[in-house]
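Input.
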Amino acid sequence: MPEFSSEFWIMLITYGVSFGVVYGQIATKLRYLEQKMDKHNGVIERMAVAERDLKSAWRVIDELK
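Output.
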């Protein structure tokens, strides 16, 4: 079994920590984007309901004329 120097282990630990930091940043950004998307979808759903209600209101107004 080959012997590894202390430099190898330090590099391996550094790479591992770096990977963990980058993964954490990406995961945080994805959570933030998911929250923004949920808000956007909520607005779209509310607008669809408002448009439907507005069509109904205009239909009633046209019937009253």
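Residues 6-64 form the longest helix (59 residues).
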